[in-house]
Amino acid sequence: MFTDTLSATIQGINALIVHVETDIANGLPTFNIVGSAGTEVKEARDRVRSALKNNGINIPPSRVTINLSPGGLRKDSTAFDLPICIGMLTAMEYLPEEYTEGILFLGEIGLNGEIRPVRGVLPVVMAAKTEGVKECIVPTDNASEGSIVPGITVRGASDLKSVVEYLINKDDSLLPATHTDPESLFNENAGVIPDFDEVRGQERAKRAAVISAAGFHSLLMTGPPGAGKSMIARRIPGILPPLTLPESLELTSIYSVAGKMPKGRALICTRSFQSPHHTITGQALVGGGPVPMPGIISLSHRSVLFLDELPEFGRDAIESLRQPLEEKSIRISRIRYTVEYPADFLLISAMNPCPCGYFPDRNRCRCTENEINRYLGRISGPILDRIDLCTELKSVEMKDMTGKKIGLKTSDMSEMVEKARKMQERRYKGTKYRFNSELKADDMDEVCRLGKKESLLMEKLYKEFSLSARSYHRILRVSRTIADIEGSEEISTDHLLEAASFRPDLEYFRNRK
Ligand SMILES: Nc1ncnc2c1ncn2[C@@H]1O[C@H](COP(=O)(O)OP(=O)(O)OP(=O)(O)O)[C@@H](O)[C@H]1O
Ligand SMILES: [Mg+2]
What's the CA-to-centroid distance between 443 and ligand 1, angstroms? Predict the structure, then answer.
């Protein structure tokens, strides 16, 4: 007998409906799974056979063929275990096929019939809703994730037996997960990000943080140990505007596909802060693997990626950031298919100025010129080129540590960021841009139009500091953000000078290589 059961597969961070077709026919006993099934799917054969046997159902000696349609779509997931089990039960006529009609199944099955969590439940439920599916049965641990999609019933199941009982009786044995309004979850995590008022002094670095967050400009902080670089980086997610619902759903889908959803959480509703250790491999950073998975840069989507001790990162890892920094997404190619994950992250990095950390304080720094140059040389030109802002921190002065004066705090800084974001939103409405940092040279003349005085200043800077065309454009982009923070449509000489003061080739790295 032939039956058709609904399931889904993940492509990038989206899901596509898959029909699990099951045919049981007379013939030599075989169990084949076809339809671009990866190893994990093929292994379902043994799990399904044992799970059914341990629940009292023996597969008769017959020719079993499972086809996952559409056949051209690569499938790599243990989530097909449950739909294959259900397909077998209907094909063996233990269950009438109409009992499973319109229900999508997803879940990994243990040999005893236990249903275990899988990746990507949120995108699957969203795709099911779009396709008009009325009900999904998913692993209990993933049910809360699916429950935020309105207009579709999501039931969590913990073992095969309870699914079968539910399908037969259609009772409340599998309770539907209560739909949670995603908006109501947004306050859940408020207040977990520490405040900038705890950072004493370092006003210039805080200003750089504001500009960085306002225009989504990448930032590099240099300075001696204990100056507050990591402290500042950790507080930057707090000054980025709150996630919007579509952004939150997108980020949650990435977490879900990566299998990184915190247990019991339905939605990622705050911008994340990813701070990988410098021993991380390129693959873990950008994503990949035999079965492609999103990497740290995708978990940092619309959030902060903090690379602390930048020169210590492997060249491969750092260089692999070049393409995603440009394209805001990462494409991973395999022989027969390519997946794409979003990766629009704010790159914040920090480093000591030399191996011992104390340069230019020659009373403490014992590094030779050569050692310093070698250390700085580990950061390649192309990566420095993609960093819009660079600021050098000094050790905190005693008066700042003990004084009453508290400089910029998170609330002030978020206000500035918000103001600049609104200006950008208005300006870029209907265009391909969202932030000043994305501005391409072609549109620069229009968006960063300079007056006569300002043009003369840029000419002077260009000559005096032998700027490259790239650095020239970068100063313009950053000055656009500085003007936006002030709510000004015009870019003034002050804005240009401040922007120029944050350039890496003008500040710390200049003449050091
Ligand atoms: N500006 C500051 N205001 C208040 N406390 C500070 C400041 N800078 C550093 N500290 C204190 O020093 C600790 C270490 O700071 P942090 O880790 O940010 O330094 P860092 O610049 O990242 O150093 P390293 O180069 O060693 O990574 C902080 O946890 C904090 O207690
Ligand atoms: Mg640090």
Answer: 40
CA neighbor of 9 nearest in space, from 397, 420, 381, 292: 292
Q: What is the token pair recorded at 241?
A: 């505007």
DSSP string computed for 186-235? TTTTTT-SPPGGGS-S-HHHHHHHHHHHHHT--EEEE--TTSSHHHHHHH
Binned at pLDDT 50, 70 and 90, residue 513 comes out as: very low
Q: In what order do the strands lie in the sheet with 346-351?
A: 273-274, 304-308, 346-351, 219-222, 389-392
Atom 5 of ligand 1, nearest CA residue: 199
Dump pLDDT digits (tens) for 201-253: 899 999 999 999 999 999 999 999 999 999 999 999 999 999 999 999 999 99
Burial 188-197 (b: 16+ CB within 10 A, else e): eeeeebeebe
pLDDT confidence of residue 214: 97
- Those residues whose C-beta lies under 8 Å from the C-beta of residue 463, and which sit 6 or more positions away, are none
Which of the 8 DSSP states describes residue 328? S
- Residue 480 CA, chain-centre distance (Å), reads 27
- Per the rule left: phi > 0, alpha: psi between -120 and 50, beta: everything else, 41 is alpha
CA distance 356 to 365: 6
How far apart, in whole angstroms, are the C-alpha atoms of residue 458 and residue 477?
A: 13
Closest CA to 475 of 384, 402, 388: 388
Within 6 Å (CB) of ligand 1, which residues are found? 199-202, 223, 225-231, 350, 352, 357, 396
Instruction: Kindly give the distance from the C-alpha atom of residue 354 to the centroid of ligand 1, in angstroms, as a whole number.
Output: 17
CB 35 within 8 A of CB 68: yes
pLDDT digits (tens, 9 = 90+) for 449-492: 899 999 999 999 888 887 888 888 999 999 999 999 999 999 99
- The residue to mutate among 229, 231, 308, 310, having the most atoms of ligand 1 within 8 angstroms of its beta carbon, is 231
177-181: Cβ within 8 A, 24+ apart: 177/143, 177/144, 177/146, 177/147, 178/147, 179/147, 179/148, 179/150, 180/144, 180/147, 180/148, 180/266, 180/267, 181/148
Distance (Å) of CA 298 to CA 211, 247, 301, 337, 389: 23, 13, 5, 19, 22
**Tell me, what amino acid is at 278?**
H
| 346 SS3 class | strand
Phi and psi at 18, nearest 5°, equal -120, 135
Q: Whose Cα sits closest to atom 19 in ligand 1?
A: 226
Residue with tokens 């403490």: 364
User: Dihedral sign, CA of 193, 199, 205, 211?
Assistant: positive
CA distances from 475 to 17, 221, 255, 291 (A): 48, 17, 35, 41
Q: What is the pLDDT of residues 64-107, one digit of tens each?
A: 999 999 998 889 999 999 999 999 999 999 999 999 999 999 99
Ligand 1 atom at shortest distance from the alpha carbon of 224? 25
